[in-house]
Design a protein that fits this description.
Blueprint: H1 15-18, H2 21-37, H3 41-57, H4 66-86, H5 90-95, E1 100-103, E2 109-111, H6 112-137, H7 141-150, H8 155-184, H9 195-226, H10 245-265
Antiparallel strand pairs: 1-2
Helix pairs in contact: 2-6, 2-7, 2-10, 3-6, 4-6, 7-8, 8-9
Membrane topology: Multi-pass membrane protein
Protein name: Energy-coupling factor transporter transmembrane component T
Keywords: Membrane, Transmembrane, Transmembrane helix
């Protein structure tokens, strides 16, 4: 059951785990901003190698994030599909050239420039996904909240994010328990039943899940109110850790890489790398 949980903190004791939450958050933001800004394929390929290397040393396994990766894959397919449907020659506009490969129906064509644009667009998402998963799965929710507060985010927001991350595994456990209880009563939502029967079975699970979630929210909010949460403008964090040498080294290295990538990207005055010139 532990490996089936989505976005649940995994204490694996890797080098990434030993970094403070603030360090991981700042480095993740630096890489995310640099990745979103650039359309230079060379930079994106380097970032992809680094992202996969960080994922490897974090000791997060494929089985831990299999469902998330499949969801991201479906999102990528839909994103590329809709971009192509609404802008079938957007790459031609960007790269100021047109190399026709296949003529389809009406305005829809397949050009080398459009394919290259979709490649870059896909790379940008593929680079960020492993970094986001590593950051979430290798950072304790309480330390995550402390890291948000350390960069100036209101501790109320940070605490809400931490509670949401802690609550996701609880919702999954509740769903699994309710599902098992419904199956024990003869309700089957597997692929063997008809679609309508599966939808009705899912509704029988969702209703107690929602009611249980609302009850848990009320209990937590009452407990926080009784303890005077939100009374003061600032608060201390039990999970906050002081910066170590490795944190300073990683921050400096991350800043150098991010700034260097932006300089390399805009060296010729454009953020698009154009191999068709």
């Amino acid at each position: 059951m532990a490996n089936s949980l989505i976005l649940s903190y995994l204490p694996r004791g890797s080098v990434v785990h030993k970094l403070t939450g603030t360090t991981k958050l700042i480095v993740f933001l630096l890489f995310s901003v640099a990745t979103m800004v650039t359309y230079d394929t060379r930079v994106l390929v380097v970032f992809l190698v680094m992202s996969l290397a960080i994922f490897k040393i974090s000791r997060v396994h494929y089985r831990d994030v299999k469902l998330i990766l499949w969801m991201a894959f479906v999102f990528l397919l839909l994103n590329n599909l809709f971009v192509y449907l609404f802008k079938p020659e957007y790459g031609v506009e960007i790269y100021q050239s047109r190399t026709l490969l296949v003529q389809l129906i009406g305005p829809y064509t397949i050009t080398a420039q459009q394919l290259f644009y979709h490649l870059n667009m896909t790379l940008k998402v593929v680079v960020v996904i492993p970094l986001a998963l590593v950051f979430i799965l290798c950072t304790d929710p309480s330390e995550f909240a402390a890291s948000l507060a350390s960069i100036g985010v209101s501790y109320r927001i940070g605490y809400a994010v931490a509670l949401a991350l802690r609550y996701i595994p609880d919702v999954q456990r509740d769903y699994h328990n309710i599902n098992q209880a419904q199956q024990a009563r003869g309700v089957d939502i597997s692929g063997k039943d008809k679609l309508m029967d599966r939808l009705k079975g899912s509704a029988n699970i969702l209703l107690p899940l929602i009611l249980g979630s609302l009850n848990r929210i009320e209990v937590i909010s009452n407990a926080m109110e009784l303890r005077g949460f939100g009374k003061n403008k600032r608060r201390t964090w039990y999970a906050k850790r002081p910066f170590a040498t490795r944190d300073r080294v990683v921050l400096i290295l991350g800043a150098v890489i991010a700034i260097g990538s932006l300089i390399f990207t805009f060296w010729d005055g454009s953020r698009y790398y154009n191999p068709f010139i």
